[in-house]
Write a structure and sequence with these properties.
Mean pLDDT of chain A: 88
Largest interface: A-B, 43 and 40 residues
Helix content of chain B: 25-40%
Number of strands of chain A: 4
Strand order of the largest sheet of chain B: 6-7-8-3-9-10
Structural class of chain A: mainly alpha
Shape of chain A: globular
Number of domains of chain A: 1
Strand content of chain B: 15-25%
Distance between the termini of chain B: 34 Å
Largest sheet of chain A: 2 strands, antiparallel
Strand content of chain A: under 5%
Number of strands of chain B: 10
Largest sheet of chain B: 6 strands, mixed
Oligomer: heterodimer
Chain lengths: ~425, ~250
Amino acid sequence: MMSSFLFRAMDAKAGIFLAILGAAIVLVPAGNLLVPETSPFHVPTYAVTLMGKYLTYALLALAVDLVWGYCGILSLGHAAFFALGGYAMGMYLMRQIGPRGVYGDPVLPDFMVFLNWEHLPWYWYGFDMFWFAALMVLLVPGALAFVFGWFAFRSRVTGVYLSIITQALTYALLLAFFRNDMGFGGNNGLTDFKDILGFDIQADTTRAGLFAASGIALVLCFLICRSITRSKLGKVLVAVRDAESRTRFLGYRVEHYKLFVWTLSAMMAGIAGALYVPQVGIINPGEFAPANSIEVVIWVAVGGRGTLVGAVLGAVLINFAKTWFTAALPDIWLFALGGLFVVVTLFLPKGIIGTLGSGWTALRQRKISARYEAGSDQPPSPAAHSPGAAANISPRAENTASSTSGAAKPQPAE
Amino acid sequence: MARATSLLYLDGVSVSFDGFKALNELSLIIAPGEMRAIIGPNGAGKTTMMDVITGKTRPDTGEVFFNGAIDLTGEDEASIAELGIGRKFQKPTVFESHTVWDNLELALKAPRGPFSTLFHVIAQSEKKRIDHLLDLIRLGSKRHELAANLSHGQKQWLEIGMLLAQDPKLLLVDEPAAGMTDAETAETAELLKDIAKDHSVVVVEHDMVFVRSLDVKVTVLHEGSVLAEGSLDHVSADERVVEVYLGR
């Protein structure tokens, strides 16, 4: 049962993607640690960390794509789960500082000493152990998503209304974490980390290790997402996206399906946050900012929603562009990002991967019909539909869908 | 007929939306194995009646029982579908970005929970059943086409196929012939008669030719309650029915 489940994830397309990712996981750390600094192939440490950060963003985008691209739940609050995972990791890293803090208190982090706190709050207990923190990275975002989703999906809140509530969720957390009394460092957040699992967090080897860990997490989550989207459950999700009430009348309990992917997606976002924090060296309430969540949605839209590779590609490309732009033309970046979103919505509604996919199908169809005209005996047949491909990539499907029923195409606001 | 021996039992069902009475003391009994046609002018409450039976709308007052014993007013859409009531919508609603095959696979009677579908591997018997259904609804050659690419009539048929795939005890079919050519309408009537051999069917339809070709007991709804019941000839002889249809 389990083997057929995982086996389903693999095919040539996934193979190519995983090969590229696997090569990056090996070559980038090797280029940093093994290649001498004088060589043109040397990868500087800052670049390793930067790329590691992109990979965690890619994982966050993957999580958003799973709920939005496949199930039609437009989350504008996924940065909340990302930040909660990040805070869980940050708490572990704070406890690892021990007496090396500025105030030298063996237990209390610096900001608590500064606030004249006498004891460690109860919710900081256990975070000195990595396994506990790792568990919380999954459980805290997962539990929040479960409770939130339980109420939202059971009350059948959908579309724009759900998106607005997710914004409210992340904004509420932003305000809460800004408060010093919350015990998470208030405005400054958690920073000044020293080591992780006993390794110096600044060391090149640790940086390379964190990069590789981010890559491996991305590979694993990609495989999980892919085996989900290619299973019958994946088909039900797309059915919910396209015709929710029809799915209900078939006897599927839509709220259970939504709750399942929503919680899973939040956990993936939590993992992404936990890998992000040691690489950037700080977590503060700014990560909860509503704009962050919206940016993730743009990555997914640009890359191609409803295609897992698209989400990853979109996140990496846009963040690479952001790095370059904010260094070269810092004033332009936000305009460029906004412009990009408009351009993609107008001209590439299926995103980069979705457009490539339908272009490829159209080209192949054209070749087949040309050959048929030239006298081959294979009649042009409709494109075979692979369940792993974006469910909405058929160009003809788009035309018919828009003329007969608007509900077939996932609407931008849903 | 008593409640205990009925398949579907509606008694005194009323539904109002903002003061408008969509259903007014509606009572209707469908016997096991029966096929029934329901006609009525626009706004007679046909679709609302289906909504009440399938759990989309809760009645304000009245009783709805399935199989004589199961109170449907306490159940939601998914559990009513699981109990064995399948519904075809007025506007054909199929999953457009899935293939014809996938549409049927999704509808096929099987455990509906997320974890059973996650680990689901399609069985040989299921493939056979889908093949059989594809033959029945004459979409065998379109099995790998996206449902969005089907014609309107084909979508209607696919939806009927999906309904059969669920293997329900009772089929509620809302305007199956809408938007079909005359030839397609005749074929659809044949198909429904075929289905009615081993299922109970309730058909809502405007098309009198179609209703006549079904040759079953007809219930006329008007302003949310039953106006007349009997054979088509019997009800069309009823003066009140004529008045309702031709205006007063």
